[in-house]
Specification:
Elements: E1 4-5, E2 12-13, E3 19-23, H1 37-40, E4 43-47, H2 48-55
Antiparallel strand pairs: 1-2, 3-4
This protein binds zinc ion.
């Protein structure tokens, strides 16, 4: 069984749970020109809720 981990909250979820994928290239944190190559091929899975929270300006306490 495949277990995925949300890149935002870190909680695990099953592939059939509601989630989404984001390519590393589109992730703001990895836009640095010298980012390691392996990150260019990486993908990140998120809970849909987590992603919407991130993109809507919600911020977790530092
Ligand atoms: Zn999450």
């Amino acid at each position: 069984m495949t277990t995925l981990y949300c890149a935002i909250c870190g909680n695990r979820f099953e592939p059939d749970d509601d989630h989404m994928w984001i390519d590393a290239e589109r992730k703001p944190r990895t836009c640095h020109p010298t980012a390691p190559l392996y990150e260019a091929d990486a993908e990140y899975a998120f809970h849909v809720d987590c992603w919407e929270r991130e993109t809507s300006g919600w911020r977790a306490p530092a």
